[in-house]
Amino acid sequence: MLLALEIHEFAIIERLSVRFGPGLTALTGETGAGKSIIVDALSALLGARMGGDYMRAGARAARVEGLFALPRDPASHERAVELLSSHGVEPDDDTLAVAREWLAGGRSLARLGGRVVPLSALQQLGELLVDIHSQSEHVSLLRPGEQLRLLDAYACVGGSLAVYRSALDELYEVQHAIAALSGDERELARRVDLLRFQVNEIDAASLTPGEEDELRRERTLLANAERLAAAADAAYRALHGGERQAGVVDLLGRAAAAARDVASIDGAMAEPLAQLEDIQAQVGEVTRTFRQYRDGVEVSPRRLEQIEERLEAIRMLGRKYGPSVEAVLAYRERSAGELADMDGAEERLAALREQEAALMARAGALAGDLSRQRRAASERLAQAAQRELVDLGLEHAHLAVRVAQRGAADGLPIPEALRPPDAPERWAWDASGCDQVELLFSANPGEPPKPLGRIASGGELARTMLALKTALKAEDPVPTLVFDEIETGVGGRSGQVVGAKLRELAERHQVICITHLPTVAAFADQHHRATKHVVGDRAVARLELLDRRARLDELAAMLGGAGEAARRAADELLEQARGDAERLPR
Q1: How does residue 28 score in pLDDT terms, banded at 50, 70 and 90?
Q2: Is 136 contained in some domain?
Q3: Nearest-CA neighbor of 524 among 512, 537, 535, 534?
Q4: Please, which of 33, 104, 116, 569 could form a disulfide with 530 given CB 3.0 to 4.6 Å?
Q5: Is residue 266 in a domain?
Q6: What is the phi/psi pair of residue 509, to 5°?
Q7: pLDDT digits (tens, 9 = 90+) for 198-220
Q8: Nearest CA to 500 among 474, 534, 463?
Q9: How far apart are CA 158 and CA 73, in angstroms?
């Protein structure tokens, strides 16, 4: 749900801040006051690509920010959280700040939860949060993909579609393996020779994990052998002493002897004596360690040369197969596995083709069942939308949802029990299944229904979209619906019905509606008025939340009147809308 929207330096909006509540929100105002710009700003916030003309003249940057509650629908909520997590964003109490900014140079920035993200992230999230239908956008209803999406939402086939797509993934994987094994024989032979050479080359090197690090350590010691021996000897002599100079060991021995004499007389010094004797023992051990280290230092130019040669051989392999010994060995295992597969290519290919046939049959059964569900739902959806069209003043119109399939020799085999009469045995398929969905419409009795886009007027399209949305209100998971003048081509009694339908949608969704009809605005839970003012030589758009008194004035103006008579008419309109809303199905 959209909780708040802030717009800065966008078109004629210098600064606008508005909070939205649940239910139905109406935005009214004179043409050109900026109502549709608010919808454009929301579209831009959710990833729509905008031209530079939307930045307010003279501004250094334009910005739109929104605060959203994540969808309550479990599947949509899970998808939203997964999307956010993939970009390192954690929602705060299931609310999310979304922002988009345009700079004067044409660059734009998108943010989720304050973190910069690709524009595609806003687009993907926007599909889960808001469904916008602008003055021309209900033509999306004419797109086959949108018609299929609407039917799937009504049929609740998300689970079946996911299982079908999972089966397709398995099928594609097997088909990819078949294609790899069925390539040009000469190319396969070259590949076998290359893999065999690579495996043999790596095997000949007899690499062991961790070898490179151990060799580098040994090289460092050998390269500094003389320095290490000299330093260890100096440490030993300082500790042990020599013929002419006492070392630390001798001095500690003298100190310990004197301390024992003291402790024999004064028992209070027994503990310091013990500490001194511990130090004497530790220094003695350290002295022996330095002597052994000095005597064990190896000076071997030949061994150093061997190590350099070995490291160079490892580096040469690394340039070909990976940045480390472990990576080279992993490459060897992959190559050996591929080589083993190729050595048994014929047997493997036959097994893969059997597996492909089984997976095709499984995918065909799943696609057939998916199609069966869609065909059954198409009749229910058409009937439900038909009832809504009658309410919207299109009592003579007829709407049908056609679900068709296209035969293909290499298509999925569909079980006979799942095929419509006279349908081909094999159907062409894609990730959505095997069905082609099309809405058919007839505005007048006696006329056969034809594709919606070929015969419906703008007003009929708008009302058909609203009829479908109302029929889908329980299944549509998108929490916020935005309608920009969906009543285009509608007037009179039909306008009041449009308002009632929007209010009915608002029982399950947050609905934001830009309207010029008072009969629609009267149904709103919140009513905002957009106005345009001239400040200096600049036009500035503003949005005001109306209280009841201001709302009566606005509705009276929309009714075309003024004075007390117009206000009484507006008051009657509000009361009538309230009564109609109370009688709506919940």
Answers
A1: very high
A2: no
A3: 512
A4: 33
A5: yes
A6: -135, 160
A7: 999 999 999 998 888 888 888 88
A8: 463
A9: 13
Dist. CA 147–CA 163, nearest whole Å: 21
pLDDT-based confidence at 51, cuts 50/70/90? low
Q: In the structure, what pLDDT confidence band is assigned to residue 358 with cuts at 50, 70 and 90?
A: very high
pLDDT tens digits along 29-49 = 888 778 888 988 999 999 888
Supply the pLDDT for residue 429. 96
Q: What is the pLDDT of residue 225?
A: 84
- Which residue shows structure tokens 């909520």? 77
Neighbour-count burial for 476-495, b at 16+ CB within 10 Å, e otherwise: bbbbbbbbbbbbbebeeebb
Per mean pLDDT, which range of 25-29, 50-54, 125-129, 192-196 is the poorest?
Answer: 50-54
CA dist 301 and 309 (Å) reads 12
How would you write 218-232 as a 3-class SS string? Answer: HHHHHHCHHHHHHHH
Domain carrying residue 231: 211-333
Nearest CA-CA partner of 412 in 430, 432, 385: 430
Neighbours of 570 (CB within 10 A): 23
Strand partners, 65: 6, 99
d(CA 310, CA 307): 5
Contacts of residue 13, Cβ cutoff 8 Å, sequence gap at least 6: 7, 34, 37, 38, 41, 56, 540, 541
Nearest C-alpha neighbor of 46 from the set 92, 91, 77, 80: 80
Neighbouring-strand partners of residue 100: 64, 110
Cβ atoms of 426 and 412 closer than 8 Å: yes
Alpha carbon of 262 to those of 256, 265, 268, 277: distances in Å? 10, 6, 9, 14
- Which pLDDT score, from 0 to 100, does residue 107 have? 83
pLDDT for 228? 87
How many domains are there within the chain? Answer: 1
Question: Dihedral of CA 344/345/346/347: which sign?
Answer: positive
Q: What is the pLDDT of residue 2?
A: 95
In a domain, 366, yes or no: no
Kindly list the strands in the beta sheet with 450-451, ordered across the sheet, starting from the edge strand earlier in the chain. 398-405, 435-442, 450-451
E strands along 416-486, which residues?
A: 426-427, 435-442, 450-451, 480-484
Beta carbons of 99 and 111 less than 8 angstroms apart:
yes
502 compared with 475, residue with greater pLDDT:
502
- CA–chain centroid gap for 18, Å, is 27
Q: Which of 53-62, 129-138, 385-394 has the lowest mean pLDDT?
A: 129-138
- The pLDDT-based confidence of 490 (bands split at 50, 70, 90) is low
* Cβ atoms of residues 131 and 480 within 8 Å: yes
DSSP letter at 97?
Answer: E
Residue 100 token pair: 């988009």
Dihedral sign for Cα 517, 521, 522, 523, please. positive
**CA proximity to 377, closest of 475, 506, 511:** 475
Name the burial class of residue 109, with classes exposed (0-12), middle (13-18) and buried (19+) by CB atoms within 10 angstroms of its CB: middle
Q: How far is CA 424 from CA 127, 137, 378, 438, 511, in A?
A: 35, 36, 20, 19, 44
